[in-house]
Amino acid sequence: MNKDNSCCAPQRTKKTSINDRSTGKTSSAKFEKAELTGGPFRLGSNYELAYPQDGEGFTTEVFLSPFLLDKYSVTNQKFMTFVDDTGYVTEAEEIGWSFVFGGLLPDDFEDTRGVQGAPWWRQVFGATWKSPEGPQSTIEGKLNHPVVQISWNDAVSYANWCGGRLPTEAEWEYAATAGSSGTIFPWGNQLTPDGEHLMNVWQGSFPDKNLEDDGWYGTAPVGSYPPNKFDLYEMTGNTWEWCQDWFTNKREPRSENPIGPPTGTNKVIKGGSYLCHESYCNRYRPAARSSTTPTSAMGHLGFRLAYDCE
Ligand SMILES: [Ca+2]
Ligand SMILES: [Ca+2]
Questions:
Q1: Considering only CA atoms, which of 134, 97, 121, 89 is closest in space to residue 10?
Q2: What is the mean pLDDT of residues 95-106?
Q3: Is the pTM of this model over 0.90?
Q4: DSSP conformational letter for 290
Q5: Domain 34-308 in CATH: superfamily?
Q6: How many angstroms does the Cα of residue 284 sit away from the middle of ligand 1?
Q7: How far is CA 188 from CA 4, 228, 231, 285, in A?
Q8: Which residue among 65, 156, 228, 264 is least packed, with the fewest CB closer than 10 Å?
Q9: Residue ranges near ligand 2 (ion) with Cβ within 5 Å
């Protein structure tokens, strides 16, 4: 079992700052949202295969106000609407490269630099949300897949455009848990109950052999798997999702609507992705967490938005 989080979240080591990239434009586009009642919720997990160094083993009671959450991850189609309306340029486009999982590159792809400790992550020039696996790739035919190669700063700019915000980690975890109590997954403790695949993760042996028993090697279209009891799709698996909070692995007891520490270097990401495998990285659970810098973008990291109730 991998103990550090480099398998999940490589990070840019330069330009790690919060970067106000707001376009000043707003949209009245309406997206499908679930209304969540909030209330008391126990954050964190005592699961024996959890990662103590991630800080997920510390459980604490929180109380959440009602809020709304996108039913689906933001798709390529929706992000394209944002870019068409505002002319927005993402950080990966501006910086010129991003992280791509090596197994998604063609066999004859030029030599790329790997990430130390996680050589399957490759530095690919020209990898952007429009070409998520490098310049030879396209989102044509994938408009209903979650948008990826999006930095935290990009996600916040999108949120400012359409009147939403990133969910806090507590909101995200409450939404993903969907009223289940004490189980590893919202549907129970089995990864594939009765052999059914309920999320897009990795089967086989990581990182060389993906059996694709769940139907997908990389991202799946949103809505491919059954929703949880809060009518939310693909909270776990498919793509990691940005949260609002700065990451800390020393979580303090928190009470009402926690928003995390006031400063930090990394932002929280939640939910795991198509690269998670039970033998290597089981961070495809609501309580699991990882983090990366706000300028980092990856081929397995997207987002969805929360909204305050009127
Ligand atoms: Ca899969
Ligand atoms: Ca997800």
A1: 121
A2: 96
A3: yes
A4: E
A5: paralog of FGE (formylglycine-generating enzyme) (3.90.1580.10)
A6: 12
A7: 26, 12, 17, 11
A8: 65
A9: 234, 238, 271
**pLDDT tens-digit map of 116-135:** 889 999 999 999 999 999 99
Question: 């009518």: which residue's tokens?
Answer: 231
Q: What is the pLDDT of residue 29?
A: 65
Token pair in block for residue 132: 């998520």
Mean pLDDT along residues 102-109: 95
* Ligand closest in space to the Cα of 274: 1
Which tokens hold the place of 200? 């897009």
Output the furthest CA–CA distance in the chain (Å, rounded): 53
Please give the distance, rounded to the nearest whole angstrom, from the Cα atom of residue 256 to the centre of ligand 1. Answer: 36
Query: What does the buried/exposed string (b/e) look like for 194-217 if buried means 16 or more CB atoms within 10 Å of the residue's CB?
Result: eeebbbbbbbeebbeebeeebebb
Cα(108)–Cα(173) distance, rounded to whole angstroms? Answer: 40
Residue 1: per-residue pLDDT: 44
pLDDT tens sequence across 192-237? 999 999 999 999 999 999 999 999 999 999 999 999 999 999 999 9
Tell me the domain boundaries of the chain: 34-308
User: What integer pLDDT is reported at residue 67 of this predicted model?
Assistant: 98
* Three-state SS at 79: helix
